[in-house]
Amino acid sequence: xxxxxxxxxxxxxxxxxxxxxxxxxxxxxxxxxxxxxxxxxxxxxxxxxxxxxxxxxxxxxxxxxxxxxxxxxxxxxxxxxxxxxxxxxxxxxxxxxxxxxxxxxxxxxxxxxxxxxxxxxxxxxxxxxxxxxxxxxxxxxxxxxxxxxxxxxxxx
Length: 156
What we know:
Layout: H1 3-137, H2 142-155
């Protein structure tokens, strides 16, 4: 065997192998690499969009939380205001009730004073009549008269 012929045959076979690989093997490999490259690029773009969406969601959630806090503060403020209104209304009702009770008490006191005066008047008049009857039934003596008046005052 001749080494040159072997070398020439191997060169031709290698050239045919290279041609065969370039014609049938390389296109699917290149297509698979391009598809993988595109898939990786799409994945990175999706990750970037997801990161951007996450930032937007975080901003939106912070805004919603802030709005919720403001609304809660408004509700608490309205509740406090209503509570103070209720307290003021209760105070006003209590004051009106107290003045009514005081007016009734004053009226009752005046009635009791009037009744006591009437009773005192009737008692004084009956005592005065009794005293006058005693004075008239005895003889007219200044000393006896004074003693009788002192007894009358003591009874009153």
